[in-house]
Amino acid sequence: MNIIKSSFTIGGISFDTQMVVLIVLGTILPMLDAYRHSPVRWFFNLVGMNPDLSALEIKAYDRLVFYLLVPLIAIWFLWRENPAAFGFQWGNWREGLLWTVGACVGMSVILWFIARTPGMLEYYDARAPREAFRLIYITGVDLFGWEFIWRGFLLFGLARVLGVGPAIWIQAIPFAFMHLGKPEVETLTTIFGGAAFAFVAWRTQSFVYPFFIHWYIASFTQLIALGRF
């Protein structure tokens, strides 16, 4: 049973409580991320630890807290629901596997050319870890929570109130804005990429397959920029 009411009224206007929580968290959490708040550093300072982690690793673990742990807390403790209802499951793995393989093969061809453009090379060469295994690992950690909040938490939550079509496009808006500062050719495509990821998530009833696709795309892009391919 939910510990909060399903709706509330202010000034004669009724609000769906779950939708309000979804929109507020989907807005505030990226802001905290952008302003470099670090729950991981706070925890290490609290317990007196100073682990040998790079800024990229700290950022990746921070995003697990912001984009995975916080939404799961809302699902478990506010709404008393199973995270599977928000795509936290394997879902239709057969279709998911087809989408994952098809998308990765198709994007490999596109990225082979796009990732070699001057803006992409300059941006990722300055930021990507030099060791291939470390690059792939950190990228996976960073994107796991990132995919859950958009293609799980926000998509499946908003679909209940607004319908699937609107939810697919609305969750892509904050996702696209989070790419500001990256190469223009990448940023301008993210509204469509975010919608495509959500389409796959809804078809498979799982955020896992968009995560695999996104992880591959991001890792492959950086490896090309570093001259590994």
SSE layout:
Elements: E1 7-10, E2 13-16, H1 17-34, H2 39-46, H3 55-78, H4 93-114, H5 118-125, H6 132-162, H7 164-177, H8 184-187, H9 190-204, H10 208-225
Antiparallel strand pairs: 1-2
Helix pairs in contact: 1-3, 1-6, 3-6, 4-9, 4-10, 5-10, 6-7, 6-9, 6-10, 7-9, 9-10
Structure in words:
It is built from 10 helices and 2 strands, in the order ββαααααααααα. It has 229 residues and is mainly alpha-helical. The protein has one domain (7-225). The chain has a two-stranded antiparallel ribbon. The mean pLDDT is 94.
Briefly say what this structure is.
The chain is mainly α. The chain contains 10 helices and 2 strands, in the order ββαααααααααα.
Range of helix content: over 70%
Number of helices: 10
Q: How many distinct folded domains?
A: 1
Radius of gyration: 18 Å
Q: Major beta sheet, specifics?
A: 2 strands, antiparallel
Oligomeric assembly: single chain
Helix/strand order: EEHHHHHHHHHH
The proportion of residues in beta strands is under 5%
> Which spans have pLDDT < 50 for at least 5 consecutive residues?
none
Please identify the structural class as seen in this structure: mainly alpha
Query: Globular, elongated, flat, extended or rod-shaped: what is the shape?
Result: globular
- First CA to last CA: what distance? 52 Å
What's the rounded overall pLDDT mean?
94
What is the number of strand segments?
2
Strand order of the biggest β-sheet? 1-2
